[in-house]
Amino acid sequence: METRSNHVLVGAVVLILIAVLVLFTVWLARLGTSEDREYDIFFKQSVDGVSPGSSVTFSGVPSGQVKEIAFWKEDPQFVRVRIIVKGDVPILEGTTAAILGSFTGGSTIQLDGAVKGAPAIRCPEQNPRAACPLGVPVIPAKAGGLGALLNSAPRLLERLSTLTERLTELLGDRNQASIAGILANTDRLSRALADRGPEIAATLAETRITIQKAGAAAEQIGQLAGTTNTLLAEDVRPAVGNLNKAISAAQRSMETLDATIGDARPGLQSFSKKTIPEAGQLIQDLRQMAAALSSVAEKLDQGGATGLIGAPKLPDYEPKKK
């Protein structure tokens, strides 16, 4: 009996200790996670290597772990990754998340980019569904690290393949012959230039002398321009002044002539209206008088003074002889 009683007592004590240990462990777990915060990250890239329990770091410092990975039902091209982060981690506006892969197969969630003084990422009080579709704040995702490199690897390999093909075409037999000819021509040109080195040096020296002469000629042209400016200032300007005076005098004379014509205009009008018609009548009378005098003179010439008094003498009649 005593042996059984001892076994029962030992078993009871062990069970009690196990229960206390379990309760203590649960209490510690709750105590450690009472300030933990959950966030969602929506990745549009592959999350290969990330699994529940994967590490979450902030600027390289371990800060939490991955809780859940699932497709987002509203848009299956996004993969939703829910993480649990310690309460003292500064998840502020400007923080971004990226997958930091490794060649060993495991990947971690890398958080960084927090700005000093920025507010914490929280669900807004107004319209929280738009910013927090699943009830927890969302950390923006970005492609980076090895994940971005692996995502761009197919495109990079395609470009490398295209580049390799083009290099192969460029270095074909025909192009190699052309390149060899170009190199040979370049070699001959270099030798020709080396042989003509003294002539090129002499040409450069002559060019230098020509440039110096051109500089001297330009200086002389500048001096000539200065002399021309002086001549214009000393001789032409007085002549221009005299010309201006002559123009002013001529203008005054024209003004005086205009005034004189204006004063004589009434007399001219009277002369044209009265004197000219009378002079015309006088000229007509003089013409008639001249015609009469011409007739008298003609009569005196033909018949003398009697021609003016009597009729003209008829010629004597002589009968015709048979």
Molecular structure report:
- By secondary structure, the protein is α+β, with helices and mostly antiparallel strands.
- Among the domains are: 35-122 and 131-151, no CATH class; 156-194.
- It is built from seven helices and six strands, in the order αββββββαααααα.
- The chain has helices at 2-33, 128-131, 145-151, 153-170, 173-195, 197-303, 306-309, and strands spanning 37-43, 55-58, 61-71, 79-85, 96-100, 108-112.
- It has a six-stranded mixed β-sheet.
- β5 and β6 (108-112) form a beta hairpin.
- The longest helix has 107 residues, at 197-303.
- The radius of gyration is 65 Å and the shape is elongated.
- The model has no long low-confidence stretch (mean pLDDT 76).
Specify the biggest β-sheet: 6 strands, mixed
Q: Care to count the β-strands?
A: 6
Mean pLDDT across residues: 76
User: What best-fitting shape do the alpha-carbon axes yield?
Assistant: elongated
- SSE string, helices as H and strands as E: HEEEEEEHHHHHH
Which residues sit in consecutive blocks of at least 5 with pLDDT less than 50? none
* Secondary-structure class: alpha+beta
Radius of gyration: 65 Å
Task: Give the oligomeric state.
Answer: single chain
Distance between the termini: 233 Å
Helix content: 55-70%
